[in-house]
Amino acid sequence: MSIGHTLLGLLEGGPRHGYDLKRAFDERFGHDRPLHYGQVYSTMSRLLKNGLVEVDGIEHGGGPERKRYAITDAGITDVEGWLTQPERPEPYLQSVLYTKVVIALLTGRDAADLLDVQRAEHLRLMRDLTQRKRGGDLSDQLICDHALFHLEADLRWLELTAARLGQLAKAVRS
Amino acid sequence: MTPAGSLLIATSLHKTYGHTPALDGADFSIHPGEVVAVMGPSGSGKSTLLHCLAGIVKPDSGSVHYNGRELTTLSDAERSGLRRGEFGFVFQFGQLVPELSCVENVALPLRLNGTKRKEAEDRASAWMERLEVADVAHKRPGEVSGGQGQRVAVARSLVTGPRVLFADEPTGALDSLNGERVMELLTEAARESRTAVVLVTHEARVAAYSDREVVVRDGKARDMAGVR
Description:
heterodimer; A: mainly alpha; B: 228 residues; four-stranded antiparallel β-sheet; 7 helices; 10 strands; DNA-binding (chain A); WH_DNA-bd_sf (chain A); DNA binding (chain A); Tscrpt_reg_PadR_N (chain A); DNA-binding PadR family transcriptional regulator (chain A)
């Protein structure tokens, strides 16, 4: 999963401190693997260096200073590019696809379109594998079948998620 | 894909059953020899789209242009003649006539078009060989397996040399191995004879035999070719 893109997506709703970002990420996507603070700050430094976020304000309190980050126009374009570009189909994609769908819903983008584009990408690979199977020997067929069944499982997940988008939109926006 | 050079083009189809809209401005086009998968969730309108394209159902508005003719303005008899002469059909369950032998089933569309029995059965036998079911020619549909029955149905759909084949979940009742063999044989035969295939399916592995897919959702059809 792209932590940078996910954090950028979370920033689209408004500026946040690094700590808030970590908390928002962990709540939505980090059930199994919460982010370390170090990951958040190293990611934010990189995004800052690349002009995708800017420092919106600095709070000086009793402890270390706290930077508040805001997404830049270049950052918004970067999130848009990430959401629009389908993932390379491979097994166990669900976590990144789930993250993309949630970020699309949170930022008011077309999540159904994202799922359609991903489905087309999966089918493109399934066509290639089917073609390879037709011209191949038994071992080719079995290897391609294994990949095809995995891709088919992903596609079923895409269908199911498309059917539940309305429900998911309510849940993530509540 | 652009409609230029298309054999069958539907534009802005609307169809409502009672208060339920089944098609809401759907577009579609297919070229000779092309296999297009029509996908989408249950109730999205994909079967209604197929029925409108095949002239089985008349849309409330919109046009279906086939080979220079506007289907929506033809009479029932003219559309029925077109379906018999130029279109082929395969459904989820073979819908073979149980009283006839398999070869008689395959020959049936030719016999209905006035072809003599001997010639019709010769042509039927050639298609059955092509679909690898020559050995069940003289059995009744009730005596053959599901996979064999479906291949017999595919042979019957192709025997008249249709220019468009409409296949609605053609492998829905088959296991993976039989389903794939049916798809291999169907698409090979269609591509060789330049028959356009409109393939309604909800199975991705079946759709993977197509050249491109169209996704129907909420009565609208989206062509996924070149998406990205």
